[in-house]
Amino acid sequence: MTRPSKPGLFITATDTGVGKTVTTCAIAMSLRRHGLRVGVLKPFATGCRREREGLVSPDAEALAHFSDCRQPLEIINPVRFAAPLAPAVAAEKSGQALAWDGIDHSLRLIRQSSDVVLVEGVGGAMVPLDGRDPKVTVLDLARRLGYPVLVVARAGLGTLNHTAMTIRLLRDAGCRVAGVAINGYEPDEALAARLDPSMPGNRQWIERMNGTKVLAVIPQVPCDTVDPSRAMLPGTILDAVAMTYWPDVLGDAGED
C-alpha cells in the first residue's frame, strides 16, 4: 500500500456497537456540505444479509447513502461475511483467506472518484482480521492505510480506560490519532449527572489523559430515530458532528 493520495480519515472505536457507522455517516454529510466528493470504504463487514447478488452490509449501504459515493457496494465493502463474528473467526469458518489486493483495488477506485476518503473499521482496534494469522488486527489495517485515526468512544462509565488503551495502542503502532468522538452523551447535564455521574466530566478527562481533542460530542437519541442503513440520522447528530470543520482533520495528501 502506497502513501495516501487523497486526504482521509480512518474511524475506529473502543468496542463493537459504539457508533462508528453513525459517526462516519455524519462526517460524510458534513464534508459533502463543504462541497467535497466523499469516498467511503468499509474494508471488512460481518453479519451481512444474503441477496441474489451476494452478501450486503447494511453499514456499507449507510455509508454509500450519506456520502453519495457512487461506487458499487462490492467496491465500498470488498470483504464480507454472513456470520456475525469477528472477521478472522468468520474467515476461518468459511475457509476464506485474507486478500489485501481486493482492499487495495477498492481504495484505488474510490480515491480516483473522490476528493476525500473515509474508512470505517470493524469493531475495535484489536479485532482480528485474518483467519490464518490471529495476530493481524484492525490496528494493522489502520497502519497499512496510513490515514489519521478518529476514535469513537462511549460517553459513560468505563470510557476513560477503554479510550486510553485504544489511543495508546494506535500511537505505539505509529498511527496518528486525529481525536475522539464521544457518542451517546446525554445533552441534559443535570440528567446526565443523575444517570451516570461520570458522564459530564469524561470529555475533559479524555482530553487530559491522552493529550488529544474531543472533536465531536454526539447526543443520545431515541433508538427508533436513528438507523443509518435506512437513511435515518437525526438532525441533532448531524449538527453536533458539523461543529467541527472536518477538512482540517483529514490527513494530508501524499504521493502514489
Task: Draw up the topology in text.
Blueprint: E1 8-13, H1 20-33, E2 38-41, E3 44-45, E4 49-51, E5 54-56, H2 58-67, H3 73-76, E6 79-80, H4 87-94, H5 100-112, E7 116-124, E8 128-130, E9 133-137, H6 138-145, E10 149-154, H7 159-172, E11 177-185, H8 189-195, H9 199-210, E12 214-219, H10 235-242
Parallel strand pairs: 1-7, 1-10, 2-7, 3-6, 10-11, 11-12
Antiparallel strand pairs: 4-5, 8-9
The biggest sheet amounts to: 6 strands, parallel
Main-sheet strand order equals 2-7-1-10-11-12
- The total strand number stands at 12
Question: How much is the average pLDDT?
Answer: 94
Radius of gyration: 17 Å
* SSE run: EHEEEEHHEHHEEEHEHEHHEH
Question: Helix- and strand-based class?
Answer: alpha/beta
Shape category: globular
- Unreliable sequence segments: none
Strand content: 15-25%
In short:
The chain is α/β, with parallel strands linked by helices and 256 residues long. The chain has ten helices and twelve strands. The longest helix is centred in the first third of the chain and has 14 residues, at 20-33.
Describe this structure in words.
This protein has a six-stranded parallel β-sheet with strand order 2-7-1-10-11-12, with helices on both faces. It has helices spanning 20-33, 58-67, 73-76, 87-94, 100-112, 138-145, 159-172, 189-195, 199-210, 235-242, and strands at 8-13, 38-41, 44-45, 49-51, 54-56, 79-80, 116-124, 128-130, 133-137, 149-154, 177-185, 214-219. With 256 residues, the chain is an alpha/beta fold. It is globular.
